[in-house]
Amino acid sequence: MTLSRFLFAVFVVAGCGQQQTVDEPVVVASVDGLSITEDYFQQTYVDYLISAGTNDTPAARYAHLDNLIDIALLSREAVAVGLDRDSSMLAMRERERKKALGGAFFDRAFLQTLPELTEAEERRAFLLSKEQRIVRQLFYRNGAAAAAAYARIFGGKSFLEEARDTYGLTAIDSSAGLLGVVKYYQLEAAFAEAAFSLPVDSISRPIRTRYGYHILRVDDIIRTPLVTESEFQTARGGIASKYRLHLRMREGDAFVRNFMEARKIVVDPDGIALLARAIKELENSVEPQAVEVQPQLEMAVLNLSDIYDNLQPSTPLATYTFEGEEHVFTAADYHFWLPDLPFQEASLRTAASVGRALRNEIFGNAGASLSQAEKEVAEIEVENAMRLKLSGSMRTLLRSESDAAPTEQELRDAFDRSGFGRTKRYEATYWTIPFASKEEAESAAAQIRSRPSVARSLPGFEEHERVDLNQRQDLFRPLTAAVLGEVAVTGDGTNMWYAFSVEQRRELSTDFEDVRDQFEQAIRPLVPEYRLIKQLRSRATIEVDTQAFESLMG
Question: Edge-to-edge strand order for the sheet containing 542-544?
């Protein structure tokens, strides 16, 4: 892992979602009276583990709790300095409110279209709420890699051996891919159903979620020893609704299509064409700038308000009916949703992007029909989302305001907190030969195995001496896992394939002095943020229920 990637992982928190529960929430921590519940922590933590493909450890749990505390502190400070009154933040809050109301309306309306559960299904739903499982995963960004890994496991390779290769480990690690203890209703429907249908020690076929592809293994099942009939009768209504929505979410797309078709939408082709041209002009009017979205990723920073240079806000894009009245969806309505829309889709498939924004608008407006109690639940979701948005805005402000030099103690503290000194680093001497396809690489590898001297005569042969493998993220895993002296084949994730062989490899230790200058450069923009958080923590009343929190670890 490179230093920039490691620091990014240390300072960035995954998106936080709101989760309703039937039982009284267990509070694991509070920040000046603001509660961090067990469910809120578990939902955000499991999302982080699944999306990052990382392991569940006590240290990771405490780090995530610290991040949630920092988010609470920074979001409150953002309000104190008026960031919540910025026009863009006010618009963001309104979008989050409409999304929450639209989501709540969808939940209610969709549930009404589903048949009632049988008593057997209700009992299963209840028992699932009383069960926890210890799950581990292999995580892949594309289906082909997941299918190949499953084939190897089906062919006899052990799960932990595959985990070693998937995660770039040098030896089999019993904690590889561990998600720890999870609950059914914390997980996406497909992920949950696979995990909670597997017997102990069994392995799933590849499962697709919004994060990517997962192969799951269940290590253990934890069940509540005694479940009473009265407990089931008390909880069955709330649990049944959640279960119906969770298991049958795949029918949601059809519900949305039918709901939108009933709105009698008529697209204005001239308005769409004008919008497409305006977006193209907007895209071409800026220079790409480096932004901290993902490590080593560049994207265009767009001033979305410039779209009106080539488009009138009142330009009609579509008409639709809602509650018996005809409404016009304008360029101004689309502009309201644009910050939340995939910009590539807006540029290349403008009509589809308009359809996505129109759906958000209609469902958001439909949410006005919710009861006051339902709106209050949706508002909790808005506050959770805005806490994250405001803390992110505060971080951005702090990083742009100053280029303060860290003290020596701050540098050493950052080094210790990051765990970079404990990160495995490797130096290796190896050769590579690039190919356009896996078949070509494997054919060449077979040829080299039978006659090693032919390798140097093949086009593209390149020898690499004493290379720091942490600087070769594209090939880090295969180069650190390969058996010395053997010819192997790997892809780099960009449709390029390599035949390669590692001749020598050694593990490097990382002392503070080795990376001091790199650390100073990397954390310099974070110094004001670090100092402010330290100051805010010293003034805040932060309470952690250690017993309740550590009970989450099983």
Answer: 34-37, 27-31, 542-544
Taking the alpha carbons at both ends of the chain, their separation in whole angstroms is 30
Q: Which domain holds residue 280?
A: 263-369
Smallest CA-to-CA distance from 147 within 209, 202, 211, 208 is with 208
Q: How many CB atoms lie within 10 A of CB 453?
A: 7
Among candidate residues 163, 262, 168, 270, the one with its CA nearest the CA of residue 219:
163
Task: Report yes or no: 31 and 69 within 8 Å, Cβ to Cβ.
Answer: yes
The CATH number of whichever domain residue 476 belongs to comes to 3.10.50.40
Other Cβ atoms within 10 Å of 527 Cβ, number: 21
Cβ-Cβ contacts under 8 Å for 127 (sequence gap 6 or more): 227
Domain membership flag for residue 236: no
Residue 397 lies inside a defined structural domain of this protein: no
Candidates 484, 491, 497; CA nearest to 426 is: 484
Q: How far apart are CA 549 and CA 554, in angstroms?
A: 10
| Cα gap 402→405, rounded to integer Å | 9
C-alpha angle with apex 66: 75 to 381, nearest 5 degrees?
45
d(CA 168, CA 479): 8
Count Cα neighbours of 146 within 13 Å in the Cβ-side half-sphere: 20
Q: Is the pLDDT of residue 392 over 50?
A: yes
Q: How many CB atoms lie within 10 A of CB 502?
A: 24
Query: How many angstroms separate the CA atoms of 97 and 504, rounded?
Result: 57
Mean pLDDT of 382-396: 92
Q: Please identify which residue in the block is written with the tokens 């644009």.
A: 338
Specify whether 353 is located in the same domain as 448: no
DSSP state of 156: T
Give tens-digit pLDDT for 224-261: 766 777 777 776 767 776 777 676 666 777 788 889 99
Do the beta carbons of residue 110 and residue 252 sit within 8 Å? yes
SS (H, E, C) 280-341: HHHHHCCCEEECECECCCEEECCCHHHHHHCCCCCCEEEEEEECCEEEEEEHHHHHHHHHHC
Residue 267's Cβ-side half-sphere holds a number of Cα atoms within 13 Å equal to: 17
C-alpha–C-alpha distance, residues 382 and 386, integer Å: 6
What value does the mean pLDDT take over residues 155-167?
86
Q: What is the pTM of this model?
A: 0.64
Name the percent of the chain lying above pLDDT 70.
Answer: 86
For 385, the 3-state DSSP assignment is: helix
| Alpha carbon distance 390, 482 (integer Å) | 45
C-beta atoms surrounding 482 within 10 Å: 21
Per the structure block, which two tokens stand in for 323? 């509650």
Is residue 18 scored above 80 in pLDDT? Answer: no
In a domain, 108, yes or no: no
Per DSSP, 404 falls in state P
**Residue by residue, what is the 3-state secondary structure of 191-253?**
HHHHHCCCCCCCECCCEECCCCEEEEEEEEEEECCCCCHHHHHHHHHHHHHHHHHHHCHHHHH
358 and 443 assigned to the same domain: no
Question: How far is the C-alpha of 36 from the C-alpha of 71, rounded, in Å?
Answer: 11
